[in-house]
Amino acid sequence: MSATALIFPGMGPTRFADLGKFLLLNPYARELVAVADERLGGSLLDGLRASESDYTEYAQVSFMISCLALARWAHDELGVTPAYAAGPSFGQKALTAYAGCLPVADAVWMTAGLARCLDEFFATEYTDAVTFSFVRTPPERLKEVLADLESRGEWYDIACYVDDDFYMVTLRERNADWLAGQVRAIGGLPLYTMRPPMHSPAFTALRDKAEHEVLGGLEFADPALPIVSDLDGGLVRTGEAVRAMVLDSVVRPMRWPDVVAALRELEVATVCVAGPDSLFGRVGVTTRNFEVVAANPRAALQPRPRAASVG
To answer: Which end of the chain is less packed: N or C, by CB atoms within 10 Å?
Structure first.
């Protein structure tokens, strides 16, 4: 096994304090900020600075271009030359630009448009839905807990399979505290509750809205390198398949262990995680299977000698 894969991570809460310095100082990021400013018709950094929540369109575009800038930095400064790429959950957005499926300006516009779709949809639909994450949870015991929830007539969907014992579940907010208590009772550790919610078959109308208002007007080219889908671990080789993957992520769960298994089959030994990541490069299913190269804002802002090529 000797191949390298590039991974764009899912997005966590993002504020100006998290990315502002990187976006202002890193030359790769500055170039992409200029592209974003032109496409959005205003200052991305001003919008990020004024953001009052963690997932505004400015926060999402800033996270996306930070990931893309870090991938370019990793290529030039760390010698990362990937044979494959993947973008779990939000990471799909940077992936579309990196793989050449969309021009960067269109990927910026798509990211901002999808953020607005989320805000508009959840302002009136599923207003009480959240996505709750937890770890150290035995799968069989979790099945029992979720069966109990279902027997009470309560809706839920598993949104993310992050590791063998790490899950995210989308459900009504009124049930989040109950689920947290049940997770603790079976030895698990509740982490955080996320709004807006994500990855549920219940959000078909959101998928349709995103297709009609955002992705339908974009032309996706075939990717320049094979993409491993975060929905099932399959290889994605055409532009239309990339479009479908982005849309289907609204209504299908993210399955990171399937991505890991597929990369192992493809003889990948090293993954470079390009972006502000606190999850995908750190969970056990990743660290047990790969050498992990972290291309994050902190690393990119530190002076360093050029390294030998990775890939």
So the answer is: N
